[in-house]
Design brief:
Blueprint (H helix, E strand, L loop, with lengths): L2 H9 L10 E4 L4 E3 L13 E4 L2 H6 L3 E2 L12 H16 L3 H9 L5 H12 L3 H19 L4 H7 L5 H12 L3 H8 L2
Parallel strand pairs: 2-4
Antiparallel strand pairs: 1-2, 1-3
Helix pairs in contact: 3-4, 3-5
Length: about 180
């Protein structure tokens, strides 16, 4: 790889070159990944290294923004995974879920943007899918009463559950259960 190709990758913040090389800025004493979103340095202040260890050996310290010292730093992906885990763990109880999600320390709007960007689905649609999947499982695998199933998947009114289930499957819960047991 030529110096010009590396410079082009740095100036374009090209993430596909992360891990292939690192660049350091002489004027700041910091080394970064090619994808670092910090201000593009002057070309004459930049030097390139094949590894982070080489940059450190030359006296450069890791960037706090792109975390060039870590092998895999994807904070947005980590947030999306935390949200997904918490949704999976507590989708049945909306008050507990709201408390769990607030503990992540970001706004509801930002959380929704991150989740949709990472998984291509809204938070509410994902949660609805979890509830529908669990309701279908309970209807086909157990003899629980429909009202108990409705409560166990997070509904506080039976009519809401019936409407939700019929919209999701095309069948009312009792008819779905009957179809599964044929």
């Amino acid at each position: 790889m030529t110096l010009e190709e590396m410079w082009k990758a740095v100036s374009e913040n090209n993430a596909s070159y992360d891990g292939i090389f690192f660049y350091a800025v002489k004027s700041t004493g910091i080394y970064c990944r090619p994808s670092c979103k910090s201000k593009t340095p002057k070309r004459e202040n930049v030097c390139f290294f094949n590894t982070a260890e080489q940059a450190r050996a030359e006296g450069f310290r890791p960037c706090k923004r792109c975390r060039s010292d870590l092998l895999d730093y994807k904070p947005i992906k980590e947030i999306a995974e935390k949200v997904k885990r918490r949704l999976g763990d507590s989708f049945r109880k909306s008050c507990k879920l709201n408390r769990e999600l607030r503990q992540l320390g970001i706004s509801q709007r930002r959380m929704a943007e991150i989740f949709k960007g990472e998984y291509g689905i809204t938070l509410s649609k994902y949660m609805s899918n979890l509830r529908l999947k669990e309701a279908k499982r309970l209807l086909s695998d157990t003899n629980d009463e429909i009202i108990n199933i409705a409560y166990s998947v997070g509904f506080d009114r039976l009519s809401s559950f019936y409407r939700f289930f019929k919209n999701g499957t095309g069948l009312p819960p009792a008819a779905y259960r009957k179809e599964c047991r044929k």
